[in-house]
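<context>
A single protein, sequence plus fold
<entry> Chain with its tokenised backbone below
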Amino acid sequence: MNLHLAWDDFRLVKAIADHHGLTGAAAALGVNHSTVFRRLGQIEEQVGLQLFERRKTGYVATVAGVEMAMLAARVEDDVAAFSRRLAGRDLAPSGELRITTTDTLYLNLLLPIFAAFRALHPAIRLDIVIGNQALNLSKRDADIAIRASDAPGETLVGRRLATLNWAIYGSALGAAPADGPEDLFARDWVALGDALGHVKAARYVREKVAPERIALKSSAVLGLAEAVEQGLGIGPLPCFIADQRPALVRLLPPDPDFSTGLWILTHPDIRNAPRVRAFMDYVGGELAKKRGLIEGTG
């Protein structure tokens, strides 16, 4: 058999396997559904094997389909590793850096630091990816991550900058001092929504506060701070957000059960690239200066 499979054929099979169907694969590849359907038929005819079982629940890869998808994944990893090695050979701090972080860190802590960094290094362009999901630094979804985590990833390098502490806050206009946690449970609360249910402070409210006492849920920490300011209820907030708002008052000391580490991280292959090193040294140093604010002690 004389096969002439192209790299795009392997990419298409992998996309179908990853998304368990043609619609998701088409979206990932930037083509239409009919193109994926037609091309899969051509590939299967060429190799003389069925690559996917068509089921009601979606497309399930056969042994041959799994092998093609795995080979495509290995090639993608090799290409990403080569790209990282090239990026690590830059001679001067210039070029684009993709930084992933959360909206709360970006707006309340990082933006002034980024502005100062750009003033020092105008040849470095920053591409900021805002989101709560952890992007894959190994695949160059981002070059640097600034994230709150207790498990930042064994394959990454960087440093732990501070402990990101939370406490219970209320509106400065209407929140009476607390005699203790039990006193607070009789009040109305605001809480993080289900999308952030994994956050330690969200679990605390879910376990300790009666559902009828939760006046509002928010899918964003920023929305939670606004709700507490408006007097909708008390709630847990990061100290670096709440302590910068005069309209909020801390009702209890920071709770270590809510805390996580604040990290700046990159991939080992690009750690010595001048633009990566310049960014991590400067931003890491500036965040370390704000440790008291981040930990709620300053």
